[in-house]
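Exercise 3.2. Students should predict the tertiary structure of the chain below and write it as structure tokens, then compare their answer with the key that follows.

Predict this chain's 3D structure.
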Amino acid sequence: MEVVDFRKQSVFITSPERSAHMKKIKGRDTREEISLRKELWKKGIRYRKNYKKLPGCPDVVITKNKIAIFIDGEFWHGYDWIRKRDRIKNNRGYWIPKIERNMERDKEVNESLTKNGYRVLRFWSNLISKDLEGCIQKVLRNLD
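Answer key:
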């Protein structure tokens, strides 16, 4: 296995089994995204999903109220990163810079959206699974 660096982008050659597994990981319309959207719809809140007109392509955007919502996966976005960083055992040279760059990009996107007058809400996917109603209440509090 080999890591080849091309301008801040790492390419990692993997086994066919690992490649097949990674292809199955969804980036859009995850269970948590769908459950959050369904609850918002039930409450009469209309939104756009995966809105490409904004930086970072937010998972849910309430355009009327200028609210951008992201549902972040724990592994990909560095949940509890200080503690979990040391627990990565395989291919650390690839995963640690990748996740840290994702975290850096999240901050850049937040700043850009805030400068454009948007309120940014980020939820960990496990929080939506455990406390969907609490997440909905946080969205409702941020409506004008």
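Discussion points: The radius of gyration is 17 Å. The longest helix spans residues 92-115.
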